[in-house]
Design brief:
mainly alpha, Leucine-rich Repeat Variant, two-stranded antiparallel ribbon, two-stranded antiparallel sheet
Length: 317
Amino acid sequence: MNTNVNTAAQAIQEDYVRQHLTGEPAFVKHAETLSCFDKTRAVSPTKRPGGHQLSDGPLPVYMRAHGTYEFPGPRKDPRSDFQKKNQPANDDAPGGASTSLAKKKNRAVMDVKAPISGAFQRRQNPPNTEFRRFYERGDLPIAVKHQGVGNRIDWKVTEIEKLDYHHYLPIFFDGLREKEEPYRFLAVEGTFNMLEHGGQKILPVIPQLIIPIKTALNTRDAAVIAIVLKVLQQLVVSGEMIGEALVPYYRQILPVLNIFKNKNINVGDSIVYSQRKRQNIGDLIQETLELLEINGGEDAFINIKYMIPTYESCVLN
């Protein structure tokens, strides 16, 4: 039975809970998003999913002589800061001087160690997904169906399995990195619905799903990563040979999982009442890797071990 059918609705509830606890806005609102009757404004080409910017100021340089990091200072002009040839050092010493009149350099030495790489920092996630573009253009056969116990998707087709999966499934996967409503709800819920009814039509589309999955993971947003991991778990068990078909693409999927694999909540002997929500990134990654190994065939473990050296087999051990 699919345990992730409420992932989209749960994301909305978590936004409301976060608003009451921290005071932050309940939903993300991009500046490019206009009213519900207008399409989203074009995003600058410099903003790309997963992109990050370096510091605007000068970066420290490692000095081998001192063993510290220092900021580069302005270059001195030798014609003004150093004593010229045969010029006396002062009036009492008329002879040629061999000492320099240059002032002592003031080096700005950093008190910290090497610069922080920022591997866990959230990266850019602009609102330029293909899902948003197709939905605003009216090319997707979906709409929000409001109910008392929770929203659902109102499909404009009688049977979901008759859709063109080569066309629609990559579009829905590209919308997994959305954080603005109603795009996130429609993309996540629509993805699970298509995986549930896809059957044998999912396997030929696997190569087209890798780039959207990789793009969503590269945002390094904890909420987005959690949704993508749940989708991956459902994808692996949605049909035969899907786990084996994902093995050649581990090099695109697993690097970000290797970074966040040990990102667990250490509470000692306390109780975490939110375990039922399945939002702990470390636990989700471990569950996903075990599913990939179980359903990936005989070559799955060695390829996972190559990308994530700290992973231990759940089949061999």
